[in-house]
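User: Fold this; tokens only.

Assistant: Input:
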Amino acid sequence: MGSIELIQNIAHNIAQQKREGDSLVLVVSAMAKTTDGLMELAHQICEHPSRRELDMLLTAGERISMALLSLSLQKEGLSSISFTGSQSGIITDNRHGNARILEVNAFRINQELEKGKIVIVAGFQGVSQAKEITTLGRGGSDTSAVALACYLNAGKCEIYSDVDGVFSADPKLVPQARLLQEIDHAQMLALANAGSKVMHPRAVEFAQRFKIPVELKSSFSFAPGTLIHQIKRNSTEMEDKKITAIAHKEGLLRLVLPAKQGLELFSSGTHIEFFRYEIQRDRLELFIEGSFVAEAEFLLQEKGIEVLEREDGLGWVSLVGLGIETDAQILSRVLQSCFAFQVLRVVPGNMNIGLMLPSQQTQDCLQALHNTFFGDEQ
């Protein structure tokens, strides 16, 4: 929901494409930079604002979007109504800033759908069992959309953004990256966990658990994008191992903490997302994204947790594909492609091979690996 013009374009496209008998529920995010602007206002007042008050503030962004889209649809001659997350029946736990959905009781949505209305829902938000407004953290609008699709037994959930779908690598960094027509839930989850920004892991987990097909499309063109669903494999693919896509993450902070103390960060109700973690005997190793570093530093100081090691400026490049982590030939090609880079660590995982290296080498490494595994497909 980047601008008024885009909101009106979305409404016009919906009016053009809506078929008789379709029941539509639209989940919206805040307009471009609205959430960042509201967060900045809060931090102008205090360095570490109350999570509860932040939730009250930040949910305003989606409420603005939902009302504007409803007005735009009405201008197109369609009957619509907008609901907040709480009005939609999205019930969460009590963790402000990073709440988890406990249940969905969207009876009001069903009532309006039966009247033939298009229902617009404010994403990213819900209400706790204590009747407090909560937010779902990063990727919250995607999570709201997939959760509602599960509850409503939707035939498909479509997610629109400023990209055309899932690519073999970030097309902003790798211009020759190719659009994937389809990908299964498991590999999409591996990509999301590895740093792909197209869809948040929580939303993919919902879709996988409830077997909801999700199509990622452009909000500018409405053209067919990438379908995430359960793919039936044919007999010729039984031992076929290949790279599906490559994800990356830059600007990571590596911390090594005493395990017993460090685990307090997990149990403190923090909204910090850890990119990776590993426990070895009495040591906990964490990789934290740049946007969470300030809060992590604050919590470490507040709880008096000792930092045994600290390393800034790290990056990860992760190759994702079914069974690739056990394939020696693929590993050999990966290492040959990365010979010119300072690879600090190679970590096999579930359907992925991860490489740790200095952050400033991440993009060049991404390009080199893409050339190796996708160059002959262009």
